[in-house]
């Protein structure tokens, strides 16, 4: 079981410290509202890496919002675009990427992420996720008659996929984004030095 403030150290397939973290790419996964973009921006500052947000990259390239893409192309169309962006960003170096909450639904995406760098799962309770997302109208999957129940359903579906993909799992709900990013930066730097 993971404690509230735990940072699970990065390890490779042999259980040795993962040395890719300070020099390689870092990918943040987790539910909508987990803080991937906020923590990712701060972490990129601390580790001197370039920050990307896959949803923002999709919006920049299409010129429309995520809800508009869902409306026109459906979730399947959005997921295709998401995989294209992830494939492209896998070729970048020294980046931190905040992925969309559903990026892990694709087995191909999970494999790309896991082998392309260090994956950090920002795990947050449903209560915290609900508090952060309940007024956000830019979350197409929560535009239902019972958005909290939908959020809980998505969490149950996705939590095992995030865990499967991640090298590091962090309980992110109880700390400020800045404190969390500082803690991660320190852990990642230590892991890369001791490898």
TrEMBL record:
Pathway: Metabolic intermediate biosynthesis; chorismate biosynthesis; chorismate from D-erythrose 4-phosphate and phosphoenolpyruvate: step 5/7. PROSITE patterns: SHIKIMATE_KINASE. It catalyses: shikimate + ATP = 3-phosphoshikimate + ADP + H(+). Its cofactor is Mg(2+). Keywords: Amino-acid biosynthesis, Aromatic amino acid biosynthesis, ATP-binding, Cytoplasm, Kinase, Magnesium, Metal-binding, Nucleotide-binding, Transferase. ATP binds at residues 33-38, 139, 175. One of its GO terms (biological process) is chorismate biosynthetic process. This is Shikimate kinase. It comes from Nitrosospira multiformis. The lineage of its organism: Bacteria, Pseudomonadati, Pseudomonadota, Betaproteobacteria, Nitrosomonadales. The gene is aroK.
């Amino acid at each position: 079981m993971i404690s509230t403030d735990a940072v699970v150290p990065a390890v490779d397939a042999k259980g040795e410290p993962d040395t890719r973290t300070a020099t390689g790419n870092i990918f943040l996964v987790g539910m909508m509202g987990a803080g991937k973009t906020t923590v990712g921006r701060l972490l990129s500052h601390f580790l001197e890496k370039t920050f990307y947000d896959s949803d923002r990259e999709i919006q920049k390239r299409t010129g429309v919002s995520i809800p508009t893409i869902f409306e026109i192309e459906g979730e399947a169309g959005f997921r295709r675009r998401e995989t294209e962006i992830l494939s492209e960003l896998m070729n970048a170096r020294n980046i931190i990427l905040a992925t969309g909450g559903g990026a892990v639904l694709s087995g191909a995406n999970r494999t790309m992420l896991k082998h392309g760098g260090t994956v950090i799962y920002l795990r947050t309770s449903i209560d915290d996720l609900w508090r952060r997302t309940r007024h956000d109208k830019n979350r197409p999957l929560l535009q239902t008659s019972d958005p909290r129940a939908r959020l809980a359903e998505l969490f149950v579906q996705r939590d095992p996929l995030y865990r499967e993909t991640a090298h590091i799992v962090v309980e992110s709900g109880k700390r400020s984004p800045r404190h969390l990013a500082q803690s991660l930066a320190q852990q990642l730097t230590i892991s890369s030095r001791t490898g």
